[in-house]
Amino acid sequence: MLSDELKTQIRNSFIALKSDMDGFQARGSQNKMMAEISKTLTGEYEKSNRILCVEAPTGTGKTFAYLLSSIPIAKANKKKLIVSSANVALQEQLLLKDLPEAQKYCAVDFEYTLVKGRSRYVCIRNLINLTEDNASNNSDLLFNEPPQAYQLKQMSELLEDYSAKQWNGEIDDLARTPDSTLWQKIACNRFTCTARNCEFYDECAFFKSRKKISHADVIVANHDLVLADLSTGNTVLPDVADSILIFDEAHHLNTKALSHFSLSTNTEFIKNSIRQAQGTSEQIAKLMEQEPIEIDIKQVDDYLQDLIELLKMLSFEEDVFLFNQGQIDDSIAKVSVQISTLITQILSRFAILKDTWTDYLRIQPVEKSIADPLNNAIGECEQHLIGIIELFSSFLQTDDASKSPHSRWISKNIANKKTNYSLHSAQTDISTNLDNLIWSKAAGCILTSATLSSLGSFDRLNQQLGLIKSDNQYLRLPSPFAFDQVDFVIAKFDAAPQQVYEHTQEVARQLLQRINANEGSLVLFASNKQMQLVADLVENKLEPHLLVQGEFSKKLILEKHINLRKKNQGSVIFGLDSFAEGVDLKGDNLTHVVIVKLRFSVPTSPIDKTLAGYLESQKRNPFMEISLPDASLKLIQACGRLIRTETDTGKITIFDNRLVTKFYGKQLLAALPNYNIVTE
Q1: Which residues are listed for [4Fe-4S] cluster binding in this entry (predicted)?
Q2: Three-class secondary structure of residue 290 per DSSP
């Protein structure tokens, strides 16, 4: 329960924030958010999980609301607070600005740190082995193609910098990063790591970061890391049962989870992995003066060739073949079973060999220059074989008839006149995974974002994340901004978006008429092709400077735009989805947002197509259940680029007549903030 002491701490933190923070503006919604977080995390709602979903519009002050309320609760209950974001920008803001500020106002002392995935850190042992001359003895076990001279030189420089403490061992702190295939060989890896048994344990960049985590009260992470760690044994982050998790930008969590729980492998990778396992086995057996494990490469190759011949017969659409409702063809399934069985046998024999080798090293020392590369090769082989088996297991499993099926597909890639086939299996419903990993275990969870609901409800979020409405708490906070002073103009438009050519031509004409030459404007497109066509039509006719996504990085475009506005010059940004979210152009930097058309998600990815097909098979409507709610959320996000502070002004114009001609137009408009709707 929320004790008097905790109430006092949280209240005093809020009082300090109000009195000491420069430019602070009192907002009832921020106070309300703190109160609901406090009640939820301390179990005030007896018949509810300690899970709260909060839609907190821009200007609410949500970051300080969740930090100043949850930190005292976490410390009082001896829990760790994990704050997870979807992108680097918010992580940087938390680390460089918000958390240092929160330390000034919070009534309890706390320490914080950033946590990254294991693969973001160098393994100093691997780096040393790679750069030493005698490491090449077993390099063929680790590389299909040995590192080139310039790569070895780069590795030597990294080693020098690390030894001189000029580099902290994190890939993110490198001005020039190694090739990804090379970094994989020198990065920390749970399959090759020997932890405390490693002679470099005390110098290890990864374990140094782990020590910081153990001393920190607040840990900043990202959604990918949280999902990866919890699904592989919870070895990086604190135990989830001893943690309160805050998912900021929680509307991204479903997409991240769908991607995370997807598996794939390809025919060439399987061939290479089997050969690597054989080579490693032979080297170890030779040292131990034993027979190598039995690996019948020809048998694996023959089955793989049988599989390839079957895959050649499929009708690929843009190099992808999607199995109907995830049901694998019998002939492909039979060959896949044979391949999976063989590789499972190889892994079993390989595991025995690994144990025997480990015992051998205890009684018969082997030179480090020989043992270390072999140990790495063993770990990598094991990792690859397990990954292949996991893919086939998911590829061949029978789906639960009560849930949407897995999406399973084949993709092909042609390089150097050689075709490589990839097998994919992905879940379309990750609700059970999230419940098993997070919702049923965590000491508390807060999910928040400026846009978390769709069409005025949390139903879509619940469906995506497997949350049950009656079991959790939900809060939609009002915006502090006066949206009734903002015109939302539904332009008189002759062409419907489906009339692609006519719509594109009319967009160009109307932009030339509506864009103010002296203002900052943002034009949001739903397709890159249409954006490029419109840019070609208007670039020599627009008076203000035109910045088109793709010509420069997003960061550079925003910098150029702001610099132009500082000089009172007009500037127009043409952007896609990434400019419809996370863009913060205040004041005169942005006074007109133009939305070219509603962003309905047409099922194009295999996962989306499989889910849409399943809903249709259940006599349900994918448009009403998925496309319309998602379009509502995207429209609100796009509109949210305009008003970022209480003093911002401007207007929104949309070139999509479906808002007035289609039955769902009223639903989309009703879900918007209370703009002044102007229908031309």
Answers
A1: 123, 193, 198, 204
A2: coil
CA 280 centroid distance within chain: 35
Spatial distance between the Cα atoms of 317 and 402, rounded to a whole number of angstroms: 29
CA distance from start to end of the chain = 55
Question: What would the two tokens of residue 626 be?
Answer: 């998925």
CA proximity to 470, closest of 480, 481, 478, 462? 462
Residue 362 has φ and ψ, to the nearest 5°, of -70, -30
Helix (H, G, I), strand (E, B) or coil at 525: coil
Angle (nearest 5°) at CA 520 between 61 and 252: 45
pLDDT digits (tens, 9 = 90+) for 139-180: 555 566 667 778 788 888 888 888 888 898 999 888 888 888
Residue ranges of the annotated binding site are: 123, 193, 198, 204
- Cut 0.85: pTM above it: yes
Mark the ranges of the chain whose per-residue pLDDT is less than 50.
134-136
* pLDDT digit string, tens, across residues 80-116: 999 999 987 788 899 999 999 999 999 999 999 999 8
The single-letter code of the amino acid at 413 is: N
> Which residues are paired to 409 by β-bridges?
322, 424
Do residues 34 and 2 touch, judged by C-beta distance below 8 A? no
Binding residues for [4Fe-4S] cluster: 123, 193, 198, 204
- Other beta carbons within 10 angstroms of residue 144's beta carbon come to 10
Domains recognised in the chain with CATH numbers: 4-111+216-257+431-476 (3.40.50.300), 118-209 (no CATH), 262-426 (no CATH), 483-679 (3.40.50.300)
| Amino acid (one-letter) located at 360 | Y
> Which pair of tokens denotes residue 207?
């374990």
Quote the CA–CA distance of 202 and 298 in Å, as a whole number.
45
Burial tier of 223 (Cβ tally within 10 Å: 0-12, 13-18, 19+): buried
